[in-house]
Amino acid sequence: MIRNLCVVENVRHWRKKVPGMDFVSPTEYLFGQEFQDLRQLRVINLARNYGYLGSGYYVSLVAEARGHKVIPKLSALQALSKKEFYLIEADDLSAQIQKDLAPLADNRFELSVYFGHNVSKKYEKLSRMFFNLFPCPAFRVFFDREKKWGITSIKPLSLDKIQESHQEDFLEALVAYSVERWGVRKNTPARYELAILFDPEERWAPSNAAAIQKFIKAGKAEGLSVEVIGKRNYASLAQFDALFIRETTAIDHHTYRFAKKAEKEGMVIIDDPTSILYCTNKIFLYELFKRSGISRPKTVVFGEEHLPVITDALAFPIIVKIPDGTFSRGIEKVEDPGRLETVCRKFFRHSDYLVAQEFMPTPFDWRIGVFDGRPLFACQYFMSRNHWQIYDHSAQGKAVEGAHKTHAVENVDPRVISMALKAARLIGDGLYGVDIKVVEGKPYIVEVNDNPNIDAGVEDDILKDRLYQTIMREFAARIERVKMRKTTFPSSSIPLASSIAHSLADLTASPMRLKARS
Questions:
Q1: Is residue 397 over pLDDT 80?
Q2: What residues pair up with 112 in beta bridges, in sequence order?
Q3: CA angle, corner 76, sides to 151 and 123, nearest 5?
Q4: For 50-103, what is each residue's pLDDT tens digit?
Q5: Which residues pair with 71 in a beta bridge?
Q6: Cβ-contact 436, 416 below 8 angstroms
Q7: What are the residue ranges of helices labelled H in 134-272?
Q8: Which residues, in sequence order, are CB contacts of 103 under 8 Å at separation 6+?
Q9: Is 513 exposed, middle or buried, given 0-12, 13-18 or 19+ CB atoms closer than 10 A?
Q10: Against a cut of 0.90, is the pTM above it?
Q11: Phi first, then psi: what are they for 460, rounded to 5°?
Q12: SS3 annotation, 295-307
């Protein structure tokens, strides 16, 4: 059962302030026997001294070593420890800073951030953005303005440094972050916690709502507490053990930022940022398949200066693609040189290089789902009626999708399955959808997708609930392997590992030393 804990210096005072939450002192958490063997524990570290080798530092250090969920993590404390670190991290916030602080008359300003909130609602968005970058319970950002606003420093706040007029706001933020957010899952007997990134408003999401519910049910059977999150939950991502992305991914998108953060936190992630990076660009895939000798449609990668050579290399009709187009968008079939020039001129506004490919008309494309290096499902996606693509976006702005048919993997041409497995292995061991055309009995690779569709009633038509169970079972197994590796406490996982190891040994040997420092 997952337990929530708040570490503070004055336990008696805070128990009165926030009833219903467990409070302990840093010494109790670090040396109390009941906390040393617990695996399912969430820790809000409000100890006084976050400085290197201070009591707050040790609470976060030991929490991570024990496999407890903790805020702030050492990575957040490290990011806030030096100006060169946090200025780089906060560079993307410049536009929002200029917008929010422009009306101020003074040239200096202080922003207090309490679990992503501020006492003034007009700075709520900016506070949340800072908290997304630096998940720390309380900190203050100092700004000054010369020609434009800039950050002078960011300082974590201990409880005794929160001004009296802000105490109620801090308490509200604490309750909102802990009791209200975690209370839903407080008594869930789950081994691990999995976040599914999903937007129910996304029209072409890779899973429908029914499939998401099936993932949640399958996760529960595997000992996983599964929670659906959205892009606003970036700051709380580290509180989970794993992330499953069920939104359409892109590099310049929050899905990639979530994947990168999950990777940084050492979480299990499907699909990982490297897979997203590779699969979202058709030029990378073309070069990868060419190097590996996988059969593919004849393809030319070209820039504006190479446009005249396209008609020499390929016969009309020609398929022209933007490298990161999805769902049949950013792809056009051209029938003559005039149309080729028009389409390329439009596409070159989005990318310096394009992909031209021979037209291979087929009634359907195979989509082979590959997970953990093994075939998971096999679907035929048929072209839209009277159209050459699966998705027809030309009908009055409303996309029309072709039909589908799911087959047992063992009934599919072994050459198709073999090609799919080979292509997926070139990317990684995540969840992929490999698109293959079969022309005159020969398979040709089209692309590999990093977050293939798994919709209830389509891809699960053969395996039913076993499809979801297979994925959730592997998530649980991967989380378990990560936890086992973390118990070895590798030197690469913690900054200044050697120094910390000696300090921790000293701490264990002499509890009174901690009391004196704090």
A1: no
A2: 140
A3: 45
A4: 888 889 999 999 998 888 889 998 888 988 888 888 888 888 899 999 999 999
A5: 44
A6: yes
A7: 167-175, 181-182, 209-221, 254-264
A8: none
A9: exposed
A10: no
A11: -95, 10
A12: CCCCEEEECHHHH
Is residue 367 scored above 90 in pLDDT? Answer: yes
Q: Are strands 41-45 and 3-7 parallel, antiparallel or unpaired?
A: parallel
Tokens of 507: 């701490």
DSSP of 354-419: EEEEE----SEEEEEEEETTEEEEEEEEEPPTTSSSSEE--STT--EE--EEEE-GGGS-HHHHHH
Distance of CA 490 to the CA centre of its chain: 24
CA angle 123, 126, 129 (to 5 degrees): 150
Q: Which amino acid is at 390?
A: I
How many Cα neighbours within 13 Å face the side chain of 239? Answer: 25
Beta strand residue intervals within 408-510, DSSP E: 431-439, 442-449
Query: How many Å apart are CA 59 and CA 255, to the nearest integer?
Result: 31
Go through 104-137 and write b for each residue having 16 or more CB atoms within 10 A of its CB, e for each that does not.
Answer: eeeeebebbbbbbbbbeeebeebbbbbbbbbbbb
Residue-by-residue DSSP string for 264-309: HTT-EEES-HHHHHHHT-HHHHHHHHHHHT-----EEEE-GGGHHH
Place of tokens 């929010």: 100
For residues 397, 381, 456 and 198, what is the CA-based torsion angle, rounded to 10 degrees?
-50
CA distance 289 to 296: 8
